[in-house]
């Protein structure tokens, strides 16, 4: 809830507009076009327009995409967490997943802060990382693979070829490793606790998610002989 | 899609927070004042707290926490907080100070005074009650607590018919838990006292006159069948002791508005049981209406008792109805409001000290203003908002 409230902000903005303009404008789908219908244009005659662009060249048109509901300038916003939420989401239930991720961060924070306050000396305290976002980013970073396997059909038969991939794909694969290890949990254990333990393990380069990454690297090395098919 | 994200991020961090924090911390007076004022007091004895200490934290010593609050009083969320911060500290607020100020000047020869705490959800009614309970414990009072009265309505355990009155229903397991809780809290205070009269529980079993009170309670714990009758006997004994100036009694009931509602309990053919038909409720209502000296009752109304659909109302007239208000009158109403501005700042200072807030952006004045807006001055929401920070 606290992470990002995109939809609610949109609704409040609509509410502010509704106070100023009568409600009949909002009956149709085209809200914006109705809103600007009655306004007087700032440039009245053609001569003024010509004075603005002297060279007779057409003005460049910029395509403007509306911002997504998750973007915000609040303190609580973080892009990688939003990406994680979008991948974890099932059936468009974003609010539910947001709550789960919030509980995950809470669990991580609780464990780390408890360790921090239990430590007696300053040297031990400096070792404990209490920032949950740092732990989260580190865990995702540790799960990113360097290479992935791609099937390429060559002469009627398919080969699994190790391929270098770009940053976006690596992030998605790394997040998927974490989520898929947690799918095989027991029924009654809540997902937030399992995710929290998995992320804490991945931050220390342990656990099943990191093991999956190592396994993929091994398979890539086994298929090294077909690496040259990448160029053909 | 991810490329869009990165582009925005690269624009964000420089300038926005760092500049503003540097500028304001160097110039403004407010920031300097906040550094000087402390958010903690080292006085752990609540009887010495006065209105000068308002808006400051004090820590309850670990002995008292384990003895009084750990077993039934604290919720799992509060236990987690206690475990995480490695201490149990409370904000000193105005309603608790008001009640303590009244208790210091009260004439205890009058029949018992009733306080009623009310306020919005998560506004901090429970923590004001803990503060007052700690004060009473430091004065060697006997504590009789009902941590969550709605549990008698909702939690379905054993139900049995009462032997003495046919219209009433017993809750043996709940009353056993209540007795255990009472024994653990007040073991040292009631050691010497004995019973004044004989109590007959059935044809064969009865407790004689002159046996120690602890034996009576342990009898109720071991024989669960008579646990509910033992509670009634114990309340009468406590009233007699208080009337003879031997003890002072504090009765705390959380969620008293559940006394005038339907319950989910069933027994054989009786499908719907009203809360007024439970013996535990009747016994406590008798205690509240009696004229015992040296006794104080502290109740609270909670909107958690209601269904999910209508939890917005928090005034006692709306929650308890006319019946409940007529029963409790005369009482002293005390409102527990949400955080004020000064309290909010000191709580955020505390969170920064305990590392609940640790992002450098959130520690600046702009970040503080954002947290304040998002929380809406609500204590629990303030905790929730700071989770990813």
UniProtKB/TrEMBL annotation, chain A:
Gene3D superfamilies per record: Ribosomal protein S7 domain
One Pfam family per UniProt: Ribosomal_S7
GO terms for cellular component: ribonucleoprotein complex; ribosome
Annotated coiled-coil segments of the chain: none
Residue stretches spanning the membrane: none
GO biological process: translation
Keywords: Ribonucleoprotein, Ribosomal protein
Domain Small ribosomal subunit protein uS7 residue range list: 70-224
Cited InterPro entries: Ribosomal_uS7, Ribosomal_uS7_dom, Ribosomal_uS7_dom_sf
Family: Belongs to the universal ribosomal protein uS7 family.
Protein name: Small ribosomal subunit protein uS7 domain-containing protein
Organism the protein comes from: Magallana gigas
From TrEMBL, chain B:
Main location: mitochondrion
Gene Ontology CC entries for this record: mitochondrial small ribosomal subunit
Location of this chain's protein in the cell: Mitochondrion
Top-level taxon of origin: Eukaryota
TM stretches of this protein: none
Ubl conjugation keyword on record: no
GO biological process: apoptotic process
GO MF term list: structural constituent of ribosome
Keywords of the record: Mitochondrion, Ribonucleoprotein, Ribosomal protein, Transit peptide
Family stated for the protein in its record: Belongs to the mitochondrion-specific ribosomal protein mS29 family.
Protein name: Small ribosomal subunit protein mS29
Taxonomic source organism: Magallana gigas
Lineage summary: Eukaryota, Metazoa, Spiralia, Lophotrochozoa, Mollusca
């Amino acid at each position: 809830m606290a992470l990002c409230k995109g939809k609610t902000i949109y609704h409040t903005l609509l509410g502010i507009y509704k106070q100023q303009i009568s409600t009949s404008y909002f009956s149709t789908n085209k809200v914006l076009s109705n809103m600007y219908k009655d306004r007087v244009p700032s440039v009245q005659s053609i001569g003024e327009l010509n004075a603005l662009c002297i060279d007779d060249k057409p003005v460049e048109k910029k395509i403007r995409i509306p911002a997504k509901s998750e973007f915000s300038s609040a303190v609580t916003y973080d892009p990688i967490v939003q990406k994680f939420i979008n991948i974890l989401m099932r059936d468009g239930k974003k609010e539910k997943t947001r709550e789960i991720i919030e509980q995950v961060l809470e669990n991580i924070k609780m464990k780390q802060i408890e360790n921090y306050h239990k430590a007696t000396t300053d040297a031990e305290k400096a070792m404990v990382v209490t920032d949950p976002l740092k732990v989260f980013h580190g865990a995702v970073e540790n799960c990113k693979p360097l290479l992935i396997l791609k099937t390429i059909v060559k002469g009627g038969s398919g080969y699994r070829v190790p391929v270098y991939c770009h940053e976006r794909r690596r992030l998605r694969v790394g997040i998927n490793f974490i989520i898929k290890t947690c799918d095989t949990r027991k029924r009654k254990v809540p997902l937030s606790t399992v995710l929290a333990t998995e992320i804490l393990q991945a931050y220390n380069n342990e656990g099943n998610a990191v093991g999956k990454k190592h396994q993929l690297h091994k398979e890539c090395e086994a298929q090294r002989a077909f690496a040259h098919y990448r160029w053909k | 899609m991810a490329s869009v994200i990165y582009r925005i991020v690269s624009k964000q961090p420089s300038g926005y927070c760092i500049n503003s924090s540097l500028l304001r911390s160097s110039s403004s007076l407010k920031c300097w004042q906040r550094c000087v004022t402390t958010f903690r007091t080292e006085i752990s004895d609540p009887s010495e707290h006065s209105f000068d200490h308002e808006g400051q934290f004090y820590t309850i010593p670990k002995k008292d926490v384990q003895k009084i609050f750990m077993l039934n009083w604290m919720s799992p969320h509060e236990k987690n907080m206690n475990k995480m911060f490695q201490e149990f500290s409370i904000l000193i607020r105005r309603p608790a100070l008001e009640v303590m100020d009244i208790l210091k000047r009260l004439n205890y020869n009058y029949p018992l005074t009733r306080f009623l705490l009310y306020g919005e959800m998560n506004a901090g009614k429970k923590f004001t009650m803990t503060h007052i309970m700690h004060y009473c414990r430091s004065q060697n009072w006997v504590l009789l607590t009902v941590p969550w009265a709605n549990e008698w309505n909702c939690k379905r355990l054993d139900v049995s018919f009462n032997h003495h009155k046919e219209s009433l229903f017993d809750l043996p397991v709940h009353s056993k838990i209540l007795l255990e809780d009472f024994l653990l809290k007040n073991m040292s205070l009631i050691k010497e006292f004995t019973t004044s009269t004989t109590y007959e529980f059935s044809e064969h079993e009865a407790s004689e006159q002159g046996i120690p009170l602890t034996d009576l309670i342990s009898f109720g714990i071991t024989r669960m069948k008579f646990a509910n009758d033992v509670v009634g006997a114990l309340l009468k004994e406590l009233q007699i002791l208080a009337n003879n100036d031997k003890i002072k009694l504090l009765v705390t009931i959380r969620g008293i508005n559940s006394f005038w509602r339907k319950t989910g309990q069933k027994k054989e053919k009786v499908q719907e049981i009203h809360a007024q038909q439970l013996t535990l409720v009747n016994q406590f209502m008798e205690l509240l209406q009696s004229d015992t000296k040296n006794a104080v009752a502290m109740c609270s109304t909670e909107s958690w008792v209601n269904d999910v659909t209508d939890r917005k109302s928090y005034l006692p007239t709306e929650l308890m109805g006319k019946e409940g208000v007529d029963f409790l009158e005369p009482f002293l109403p005390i409102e527990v409001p949400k955080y004020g501005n000064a309290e909010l700042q000191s709580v955020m200072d505390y969170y920064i000290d305990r590392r609940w807030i640790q992002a450098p952006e959130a520690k600046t004045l702009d970040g503080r203003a954002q947290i304040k807006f998002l929380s809406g001055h609500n204590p629990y929401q303030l905790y929730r908002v700071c989770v990813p920070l």
